Amino acid sequence: MPRGRPRKKPDAAPAPKKTTKASKTKAASATLGFEQQMFLAADKLRKNLEPSDYKHVALGLIFLRYISTAFEARHAELILDDPAAAEDPDEYLAENIFWVPENARWSHLRDNARSSGIGKLIDEAMLAIEKANPEQLKGVLPKDYGRPALDSVMLGELIDLISDIGMGDTDDKARDVLGRVYEYFLGGFAGAEGKRGGEFYTPSSVVRTLVSMLEPYKGRVYDPCCGSGGMFVQSERFVETHGGKLGDIAIYGQESNHTTWRLARMNLAVRGIGADIRWNNEGSFLRDELKDLRFDYILANPPFNVSDWWNASLEEDPRWQYGKPPAGNANYAWLQHILWHLAPDGTAGVVLANGSMSSNQNSEGEIRRRMVEADVVDCMVALPGQLFYSTQIPACLWFLTRTKKQKGWRDRRGEILFIDARKLGKLVDRTRRELTDEDVARIADTYHAWRGEKDAGTYEDSPGFCKSATLDEVEQHGFVLTPGRYVGAEEAEEDSVPFTERFAALEKTLKEQFAQSEELNMKITASFKLIVQKESV
């Protein structure tokens, strides 16, 4: 296990010019105190609307409040310096702020929140914002607030509720809070929707584990099935928290669900994160939008065990370097797609169902053997159960790399690190578990020490938790990659009570139990005799 590891910083990364949203906050699991109350209050307003429908109503308004707050703060600054510049959209674009037309500003909607036509006003605001910012927001914002199914009173109350975000703090702080609220609402709606909601949202503690292990300081970051964009938000937050600056990483992604793609675009815009996120309904296998690009970091949570992904056009696809994946399960198609997109020194973290570590159905066992023999599997982490909204299927993390002889780290060729984290985490409600900050740090620090990173401490195998195994050992286990097979049993704590004392105590307890048993037998026998006497009379 690593000991005494200080958190490192890039050697020559200058401090950010401006303190931004993510750098002001702690990990995403921390709360501001009112986030949960605000979500519960907003959820009460939805009445008979399905969470999947109401999600876009609430998140769209939070997004609108965010960009309007950012715009109005910049507008006030420009008015003081140069009133003419305050009406120049380029002045806002230069600061990564969206231009918001007058009829789309939050103050206008807030003043008309109790109007019976508020739904129509919101739609007009969304259309105006998209028209003013076509490159970033075309086709992204929800524009169906005026439909009869949405009660205007509910919309007005929701606007009032969202207007309270910020609690009178500075505009910069209000925008920070809005970003946090947006992220909390994403998770809340994922929980409310259950299985369907989990498809667009990866739990924060799982994302933080991936990001903390990969440490994407600088370079290209990619997610081939990006959902609502949580991987990207955490990656940017990581860079800023560790002394980097916005723009140190370039973000790329692809998503096949158009509704989820819109959520991702809004989520990133709320954070001020620029990204190249592509959408098509065919998906990354059939229409790889970024097929010629290679990435330094890939983070992905593909849908588990997808069975309807295959198409005959994929038969001779060059991505299947380790074998053609079975048509009935896309797990090994995702792994090979991700490996195909890795840069020569790139690393990837992938969330998959536990079955991917041991399945021998169709060609999966053979593909896994070839991947192990090619030495592209770096680390395997078994996760605790109940982490996901969408499924109770146990999950694991695969860490892949093109080379195990990276500059500045030790030569790990011929080795795989296994981490069994199934006993970690805490229950946050009756059905869902979450990895704590300490859990994430323990897993990540173990990986960094094993890789031989500077100031990462000394790695040691820890029975029941981690084991560095050779490829020969993996072969002896039939190329099964389940960490439990390698880490062994946890060492029992040494009992400080001397054996003679423990034995005497056990002997005393046993004698007492024998005496109680004899007394009970006598009572039962007496009861039977009494029954026989009564029957004979």
TrEMBL record:
UniProt similarity note: Belongs to the N(4)/N(6)-methyltransferase family.
Keywords carried by this UniProt record: Methyltransferase, Restriction system, S-adenosyl-L-methionine, Transferase
PANTHER family: TYPE I RESTRICTION ENZYME HINDI METHYLASE SUBUNIT, TYPE I RESTRICTION ENZYME HINDVIIP M PROTEIN-RELATED
InterPro entries, per the entry: D12N6_MeTrfase_N, DNA_methylase_A-5, DNA_methylase_N6_adenine_CS, SAM-dependent_MTases_sf, T1MK-like_N_sf, Type-I_RE_MTase_Subunit
Full protein name: site-specific DNA-methyltransferase (adenine-specific)
Gene3D superfamilies: 1.20.1260.30, Vaccinia Virus protein VP39
DNA methylase adenine-specific domain mapped to chain residues: 174-495
Biological process per Gene Ontology, one example term: methylation
GO molecular function: methyltransferase activity
Domain N6 adenine-specific DNA methyltransferase N-terminal: start-end pairs: 35-150
Superkingdom of this protein's organism: Bacteria
The reaction(s) this protein catalyses: a 2'-deoxyadenosine in DNA + S-adenosyl-L-methionine = an N(6)-methyl-2'-deoxyadenosine in DNA + S-adenosyl-L-homocysteine + H(+)
Enzyme category, top tier: transferase
EC number: 2.1.1.72
Upper classification of the organism: Bacteria, Pseudomonadati, Pseudomonadota, Alphaproteobacteria, Acetobacterales
Record carries keyword Transferase: yes
Region of interest called Disordered, as start-end residue ranges on this chain: 1-28
